[in-house]
Amino acid sequence: MNSQEVQEANENASRSWKVMMGSYVILGATYLLGNHKSGLEEYLHNPDMNLAAKSLAFSGLGLHFSAFYTFLKHYKKDKKKVVTRAPYSFVRHPSYLGMRMVAVGGAMLNPTFEMIAATSAVFLTTGITAIAEEKLLKAMDPKEYKVLKENASRWIPFGYQARDYGKKLLKILGKSNDKV
Description:
Blueprint: H1 3-33, H2 41-44, H3 47-77, H4 94-109, H5 113-140, H6 142-151, H7 159-172
């Protein structure tokens, strides 16, 4: 691809990123300013659900910051290369996956309409931004992006490996289906 296409892909990714950051602000404001009463007090005070929600949210924060640190470290060395190490070797968008985990954890802690709507906004904007960034990565370095795409799924860690194991299992069971 030529430099004009790379520049256009970069501008699209930048716009998507700004919209996504806005959804993060809305999510945080919704949680912090929300009334935290949805009529589901029994659900909210369930210690197991509380622990699961907080674990998901804090794990998401850890993944987000780990991905961000890895990206910055890599970006200082080579701005033109696709990041394929650390969390990026498992999923192509670990930072966004982490923010999705934070959003779901927050919605589990405060299951109000507003919080679920804000979580949906995070899912929508991270999805759009991920697609825009993948177009940029493909424009910057098609070979490196192809390797990344073949080895890491967009959202689910080990997603491709699970799919491949599932196909092998179906073949072993004698239920071969190429469209799995």
